Amino acid sequence: MSAALKLATGSLLIGCLVLGLKVLAWWMTGSVALLSDALESTVNLATAFAALIAIRVAARPADANHPFGHHKAEFFSAVLEGVMIIVAALFILREAYHGFMSPRVLDAPIEGLLVNGAATALNGVWAWVLVRQGQKLKSPALVADGRHLWTDVVTSAGVAGGVLLALVTGWWVLDAVMAALVAVNILWSGWRVVKESLSGLMDEAVPDETLEQIRQAISAEAHGAVEAHDLRTRHAGSATFVEFHLVVPGEMSVFDAHEICDRVEAAVAKAVPDTNVTIHVEPEHKSKHTGIIVLD
């Protein structure tokens, strides 16, 4: 089992435990904010399951119907997670509205907050693990799942603050007000997840830092060629696709041109792991005198 699959499976187990703790906290207190927090955690389970399926699909090798691989499956999972975050926020707003219209005194608020706090701490640690490892493994699904869990941590912190403030002041309507405020923050987080995932589905270019690494690798290892131009990049899950035109002297043999291409491909793959490089070799009269300067 790959590291990404292990993490996705772990998210399911952690999600079940956290949901159980939050439901227990709501049952102990009757807090509408804690109920909303528990509702948000049900989405965590669904999105963790979606991430697991997406990672399994993305790991499949290229085939006749998908010659470029299945990497983009992870972006579909990330989009689904963003949408479900937004749905959870709407559920919270609905419960907050009812709590605002009919505020009630909470039962055992301190005990409930302690239970909810344990769930929050567990979520916070696991969110950090998912984002860190997701970035390391170049897995959009794991990163999105981690950010989703972090919104749950923010939700729980806001809920705890609202319940404590309501307990101190006796204004029990604050329980619902805080839940509504946190729901707005979750809506924003859900939109960010969807936006970032759509960029991958739309074949957005790699970040400027990564692009510069690719350009430097080509420049340093393409000696013997004249220039490289029309560089294009895109990312799909953990894979990065790079293509460009390499201009070589007209009298250069196919063998020598191929040697240059092999060097460049190896250099790019070393600079940016899991990269697929496509090079179109052209004769010297195709030079554009723009693009990447080849170092001697």
UniProtKB/TrEMBL annotation:
Please list the residue ranges annotated as the Cation efflux protein transmembrane domain.
11-202
Per UniProt, what is one Pfam family of this protein? Answer: Cation_efflux
* Residues covered by the Cation efflux protein cytoplasmic domain: 207-284
Q: What is its main location?
A: membrane
Q: Which UniProt keywords apply?
A: Membrane, Transmembrane, Transmembrane helix, Transport
Give the way it sits in the membrane: Multi-pass membrane protein
Its domain of life? Bacteria
Name under which the protein is recorded: Cation transporter
Q: What is the lineage of its organism?
A: Bacteria, Pseudomonadati, Pseudomonadota, Alphaproteobacteria, Rhodobacterales
